[in-house]
Prior knowledge:
Layout: H1 2-9, H2 22-35, H3 48-55, H4 59-71, E1 75-78, E2 82-85, E3 92-95, H5 102-108, E4 113-123, H6 127-133, E5 141-150, E6 153-163, H7 177-183, E7 190-199, H8 202-208, E8 215-224, E9 230-239, E10 243-246
Parallel strand pairs: 3-10
Antiparallel strand pairs: 1-2, 4-5, 5-6, 6-9, 7-8, 8-9
Helix pairs in contact: 2-4, 3-4
Amino acid sequence: MQEQAGKLFGDDPVVLPVGGPLYLQLKRWIEDAIKRGAINPGDALPSERDLATRADVSRVTVRKAVQHLVQEGVLVQRHGSGTFVAPQTPRVEQSLSQLTSFTEDMARRGMAVRAEWLDRGLYTPSPEETVILGLTSGERVARIARLRLNDETPLAIERASLSSSVLPDPDMIGDSLYLHLDKSGTRPVRAIQRIRAANIAEADAHLLQVPVGSAGLHIERISYLATGRVIEFTRSIYRGDTYDFVAELRLDAAPGGQK
Length: 259
Ligand code: 16G
């Protein structure tokens, strides 16, 4: 711990940025130390006592600054072993113009992907599922819910609904839904995706290992076969700190527009 404190403080006295309450000054100072690489993701923060002595503030002030940084996901606390700079998760870019699966997206980046099953089975559909999937009266809906991870880092929760005539046995899916649909000749060829900002609610935040209320992306995908039949209705929540959705925009060759 002493060594860690030495690394973070260097030989210079700690000069807190001016303005605002002391705990916010210390919080900004810790954030700056992380930004300039004085302390790195995964490193332990000096003890509360060391920080208080070196920054010449009370331990209550240190605790408050640290608590705020933990809530914001900048620091993580592990019982019995201390406070650490949160590990950095790589950002993933997904093109908005290609209809790819999660497995394909990750494989293209050379990233190891896995899924933890949260649910899979046949259910009585909700009115929304009946309308969107165009289910006939009495038809059941296949629901699959998965936590999608890159190695040990959770990236997204996906909850997909499909007609039971397309997916009569949800247990048949291996690692990839689209691979399974491909094999049965029902892989979608077109999709409409709606993305909106969302604050991640408690249960999902717990699964995604982020603080409750963190920024997330709520995504709804409705996918179609070439015949126009809806195949998949999926609602997902992606961690805002790990995903970028990228769209390529082109100028229409409209009359009077630039060629
Ligand atoms: C993507 C799709 C999801 C689809 C899944 C299939 C988004 C937002 N969602 O994650 O709708 O069900 O891929 O992936 O892109 P899989 O074939 O790896 O199971």
